[in-house]
Design a protein that fits this description.
With 462 residues, the chain is an alpha+beta fold. The protein folds into three domains: 5-96, Uridine Diphospho-n-acetylenolpyruvylglucosamine Reductase, domain 2; 101-211 and 437-445, 2-Layer Sandwich (Uridine Diphospho-n-acetylenolpyruvylglucosamine Reductase, domain 3); 215-416, Vanillyl-alcohol Oxidase, Chain A, domain 3. It has helices at residues 17-20, 31-35, 55-68, 118-126, 142-148, 155-158, 186-191, 226-238, 278-289, 331-343, 391-405, 422-429, 432-445; strands spanning 22-24, 48-51, 72-75, 91-94, 101-104, 109-113, 130-131, 165-171, 177-180, 201-208, 210-211, 215-223, 243-251, 266-274, 296-297, 300-302, 318-326, 348-355, 377-385. Strands 12, 13, 14, 15, 16, 17, 18 and 19 form an eight-stranded antiparallel beta sheet that branches. The protein has a five-stranded antiparallel beta sheet with strand order 5-6-10-8-9. A hairpin with a 4-residue loop joins β5 (101-104) and β6 (109-113). It binds flavin-adenine dinucleotide (FAD). Flavin-adenine dinucleotide (FAD) binds next to β3, α5 and β10. The site of flavin-adenine dinucleotide has 35 residues, from β3, α5 and β10. This is FAD/FMN-containing dehydrogenase. Residues 42-212 form the FAD-binding PCMH-type domain. InterPro entries: BBE (IPR012951), FAD-bd_PCMH (IPR016166), FAD-bd_PCMH-like_sf (IPR036318), FAD-bd_PCMH_sub1 (IPR016167), FAD-bd_PCMH_sub2 (IPR016169), FAD-linked_Oxidoreductase (IPR050416), Oxid_FAD_bind_N (IPR006094).
């Protein structure tokens, strides 16, 4: 259902494409598609969606939100689990038409507009034998992804995405376009490396590129028991930094490459990415093959973009999710995960375990606004379901699993957190000194909290 145009606030009725880029209002043919976000349970109706093409148009859009007092949401790829990229009855700044990418091969750097997707950037950079590490989703937007920190297939080798961020351009709440880096506005540059979209609209990022001719990587499906899961995580931890591993312990979807007798039952679906010579990668990956005979083995030498299978840009799954870090995946933890996964009635339920460490952990905790450098394993717990009436059932399941495997690390990673109150934001996502510093920087650049459709950092007072 869409709001009739007649109900749109007066202030936004006269906006033109010429001023703002594209202007999409309720009633326009594109409106329903443009307001949809990845999260399938989010159904919001903004008063207007602005699709700027230039930083000047972004500044004008920010000024409009400020002047009208309407709510403001900023969106790059629309993949926020909480649907932060869209708001009801307010202004959405959608950067989808700002997807330029300039690669300087000699300097090993790239300027990317914030609306480009991780997959688009990765494919273009790979044509030059270069890469910046993003996550495992092709359609995820660079904007939200980078601002939260960025953990992916090159994290143990080269660090987080923000560790390759060299500079950015950002329109702040007062409409000014600032260039930020280690020397100019270093406080703001620190804050946007993990602090999310709290400080303004980033229009462009400058990234470091790494030489990467290809990887030894892909998907390996293994049967799962608690000892197998414990052994897989132990191998991933013991592996050299070249290997970044994402281990999904899931009830198997009916994928053609998974034997039918496993459909609906727990399996390990591991994504392995060795960013180095294929021969060395094979030696490392063979250790996983030796844990149990794989049910499917697609790990091989391939171009880096091969790590990203094509994704449906129109997918809108409903997911109950919790994010947390674990100190270790021992036998007891593995057993608990398997018991819970087996008991779930969701379409697909499971735990995604990402072994951290390597280059990511060698950066000082206080160097960026991402506070969890020393965490060992990130666990992202999910239940995917179709019927919104089942929400309570799956939320209870996912909360129960989180409680059952909780260890000493009480942190959470902003990019994967769905709904969080102020207590969780300040204690788990931005704990201690990180949260305090972010609140002071927020007070300086966004004292009225214009940018609040996010995991919000409340401006410090006094
Ligand atoms: C399928 C899938 C795979 C994923 N894989 C990974 C992964 O491997 N690693 C990982 O770290 N994360 C991963 N994520 C999480 C992802 O990084 C976050 O959801 C991220 O916020 C998405 O960015 P976006 O631009 O697509 O989202 P949006 O919903 O557009 O934005 C998310 C947040 O960032 C803000 N924002 C977006 N763009 C800007 C901008 N230009 N300026 C200021 N604020 C902005 C928004 O206001 C919002 O608060 C994944 C998510 C999905 C759905």
């Amino acid at each position: 259902m869409t709001t009739p145009l007649g109900k749109a606030p007066l202030a936004i009725r006269g906006l033109t494409d010429e001023q703002y880029g594209r202007v999409i209002r309720p009633g326009d043919a594109e409106y329903d598609l443009a307001r949809a976000v990845y999260a399938g349970d989010v159904d919001r109706e903004p008063a207007v969606i602005l699709r700027p093409r230039t930083a000047a148009q972004v500044a004008l859009a920010v000024a409009l939100a400020r002047a009208t007092g309407l709510d403001l949401a900023v969106r790059s790829g629309g993949h926020s689990a909480a649907g932060h990229g869209v708001c009801d009855a307010g202004v959405v700044i959608d950067l989808v038409d700002m997807r330029g990418l300039e690669i300087d091969v000699d300097a090993g750097t790239a300027w990317a507009e914030a609306g480009i997707s991780a997959g688009e950037y990765t494919s273009i950079a790979a044509e030059h034998g270069l890469a910046t590490g993003f996550g495992d989703g092709t359609t995820v937007g660079l904007g939200g992804f980078t601002l939260g920190g960025g953990i992916g297939y090159l994290t143990r080798k080269h660090g987080m995405t923000v560790d390759d961020l060299l500079a950015a351009e950002i329109v702040t709440a007062d409409g000014e376009l600032l260039s930020v880096d280690e020397h100019d506005h270093p406080d703001l540059f620190w804050a946007i490396r993990g602090g999310g979209g709290n400080f303004g609209v980033v229009t462009r990022f400058k990234f470091r590129l790494h030489e990467l001719d290809g990887v030894y990587g892909g998907m390996m499906v293994l049967p799962v028991t608690a000892p197998i899961l414990e052994a897989v995580i132990a191998e991933a931890e013991a592996a050299p930094d070249e290997l970044s591993t994402i281990v999904n312990v899931w009830t198997a979807p009916p994928f053609p490459f998974v034997p039918e007798e496993y459909h609906g039952k727990p399996i390990i679906l591991a994504m392995l990415c060795y960013a180095g010579p294929a021969a060395a990668g094979k030696v490392v990956v063979d250790r996983f093959r030796a844990i149990a005979p794989p049910l499917a083995d697609m790990v091989k030498a391939m171009p880096y973009p091969g790590m990203f299978p094509p994704a449906d840009p129109l997918a809108h799954p409903i997911i109950a999710a919790r994010n947390m870090f674990l100190d270790r995946v021992d036998l007891a933890t593995a057993e608990t995960i398997l018991d819970h996964v087996t008991a779930s009635s969701a379409m697909v339920a499971g735990a995604q375990l990402r072994v951290l460490g390597g280059a990511m952990a060698r950066v000082a905790v206080e160097a960026t606004a991402f506070a969890h450098r020393r965490s060992k394993v990130m666990a992202h717990l999910t239940a995917v379901y179709a019927d919104p009436a089942e929400a309570d059932l799956h939320e209870t399941w996912v909360e129960g699993l989180m409680t059952a495997i909780r260890q000493s690390d009480s942190g959470a990673y902003v990019n994967f957190v769905a709904h969080a109150g102020q207590e969780q934001i300040r204690s788990a996502i931005y704990p201690g000194a990180t949260g305090e510093r972010l609140a002071r920087i927020k007070a300086r650049y966004d004292p009225t909290n214009l940018f609040r459709s996010n995991h919000n950092i409340v401006p410090a007072t006094g």
